[in-house]
Amino acid sequence: MAKAPPATFPARYYAIFVDRLRRLDVDVEALLRSARIASAALYGTDGLLTLPQVEALVEGATERTGRSDLGFDAGRLVKLSSHDILGYAIISSPTLDYALRLAARHYRLITPTFSMRYTRDVRHAEITLRPVLSMRPETLRFHLEAVTVSLYEQLKALLGGRVPGHDASISGLAPRHRRRYLRLVPARWHFDGEAVAGVRFRLPLAVVDRPLPMFDRSALQMAEARCELLLKRATRTGLADWVSMMLREADGSLPTLNDLSRVLNLTPRTLNRRLARDGERFLDLVKRVRSERACALLRDGTVPVTQIAYQLGYRDSANFSRAFRRELGMTPSEYRRRNI
Description:
Elements: E1 8-10, H1 11-23, H2 28-34, H3 39-43, E2 48-50, H4 51-65, H5 70-77, H6 85-91, H7 96-105, E3 114-120, E4 124-131, H8 137-158, E5 166-171, H9 178-182, E6 187-192, E7 198-204, H10 205-208, H11 217-236, H12 239-249, H13 257-264, H14 268-277, H15 282-300, H16 305-311, H17 317-328, H18 332-339
Parallel strand pairs: 5-6
Antiparallel strand pairs: 1-2, 3-4, 4-7, 5-7
């Protein structure tokens, strides 16, 4: 199987962070040298950093400042305009609902560290951020705080500061500086340091359906087209990893080949051909992710086997049981008994 190239990070966000470190009297030049980051790459128009560079930058900054809240600081510095053409598209959206769908679809353009999912039911809209890249603990904490605080600040900016009370939950984090979060009102902040890392914002539907003041149809169409092109480029290499991520993060039934093709503005045939370059097939990825989700739901112990079958797209529990037994050599019930 062809090995996907390493993840790369848009340097513009880390340039903002480095400028903040300068104001904290950090010897930035020495820090960049130790992280093997050239100023030209950091401040270039399309500069990119590798994961080892980002980890060295974050860990070096934490060591030099002795602070645990640098991710919080970084999140407050990121503006909608920091996202380049994607930020322009978000600002030009007709409603917050549209802007959030747009951001979730193109979140890979912001960072490869997390995925964003946006869903809504009859009463609430929910934004979920989950890590999708293996990072060292300090780097994960930094990005967990940065994406959380930047999301809060950008929601507030889009709504002109008129944000009602809502719940914001961060798992995998028990910050010593939680008082800083409590000043970010009217969000009600919840922390669970023992759970798997992630972020969840829950907003009333009336908020996300609110019109945005800078809606511009022609500007939005132009910006969206550019975002789609950039997304295709970002996922051209390591496409199998991206498809697997989208399958894992799907809410409810798994997206089809046609669904993911539309996101990338590709034909299903082209998407399959590019997956083949990574040594993968779409059906194999679906099978693998479906098995992972089935095992996770069975280990949870609270969801009936019949409901799991329907969630995974099977017509009935009998079909699910046969497929599961072929894959793991035991029935779903047997697997649940052994793993609870």
